[in-house]
């Protein structure tokens, strides 16, 4: 429940504003895009989700997934995540984290 409350991926004005605020804190150099290392650090420091940070494969998968399904035209190299892809990243992060938790319980 805590993780869901900190991942504002819904299409509401309130959650959009939350995403904008988060994005500003994650994109520390304010260049409009973030690398995988910046987003990983953001999950730890901005979202303050230690459990999720410990599950780096979920972060990695969500990062690559959100970039691959983006329909926006990229202003920057494909190696970076832009704000237009951030909502999908947060939603995918939640989903991939649940998958990794389920597989971890099975092991």
Overview of the structural elements:
The two termini are 23 Å apart. It is built from six helices and two strands, in the order H-H-E-H-H-H-E-H. Strands 1-2 form a two-stranded antiparallel ribbon. The protein has helices at 2-5, 13-26, 36-45, 50-53, 56-69, 83-106, and strands at 33-34, 81-82. It has 107 residues and is mostly helical.
Q: Main attributes?
A:
mainly alpha
**Global geometry:** globular
Distance between the termini: 23 Å
Which ranges are low-confidence, i.e. pLDDT below 50, for 5 or more consecutive residues? none
Q: In angstroms, what is the radius of gyration?
A: 13 Å
Question: Strand content of the residues, in percent?
Answer: under 5%
Order of helices and strands: HHEHHHEH
Number of strands: 2
Mean pLDDT: 85
Helix content: 55-70%
What topology emerges from the helices and strands here?
Blueprint (H helix, E strand, L loop, with lengths): L1 H4 L7 H14 L6 E2 L1 H10 L4 H4 L2 H14 L11 E2 H24 L1
Antiparallel strand pairs: 1-2
Helix pairs in contact: 3-5, 5-6
In short:
The protein is mainly alpha-helical and 107 residues long.
């Amino acid at each position: 429940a805590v993780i869901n409350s900190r991942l504002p991926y819904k299409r509401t004005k309130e959650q959009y504003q939350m995403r904008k605020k988060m994005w500003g804190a994650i994109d520390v150099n304010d260049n409009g895009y973030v690398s995988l290392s910046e987003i990983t650090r953001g999950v730890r420091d901005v979202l303050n989700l230690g459990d999720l940070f410990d599950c780096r494969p979920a972060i990695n998968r969500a990062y690559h997934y959100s970039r691959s399904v983006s329909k926006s035209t990229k202003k920057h190299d494909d190696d970076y995540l832009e704000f237009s892809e951030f909502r999908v990243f947060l939603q995918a992060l939640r989903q991939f984290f649940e998958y990794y938790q389920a597989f971890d319980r099975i092991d």
